[in-house]
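Quarterly update from the structural biology core.
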Amino acid sequence: MQELRRKNDLEKAFKLIKQLRPSLTLAEFLDKAELAFKTEYYKLFAFQGENDEFIALCGVMPFNVLYHEACLYICDFVVDENLRGKGVGARCLKELESWAKAQGYKELELSSSFFRKEAHSFYEEKMAFEKTGFVFKKGL
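Predicted structure, tokenized:
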């Protein structure tokens, strides 16, 4: 698990981010990542395969709200589409869990779009996340 901050690493990661966020351009990704690094304590971790290529990414940030205690929010999690269902996601999230515990976090939280049914099964059945509610949003 490697934290990404340098522009060339973020550019390399963009191919995977596009699988999760297809409407994002490279310029938007770089700008949004830099803003999140500075203002939200956002961290983007890459998981590498045998040839040093990025096979998964996980973006996280502290989620400091009244109804959680020491919670780390998973904002972005993507495994290369060619490797899904092969245990890569589970290995990556277990490594992230170990890191989070070492940092003093006591909870992980994430949200997932309704249509991502396979991801929901993965989180609940393989990773022991529990479904606790809905996320609502409204454009302004």
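The two ends are 37 Å apart (CA to CA).
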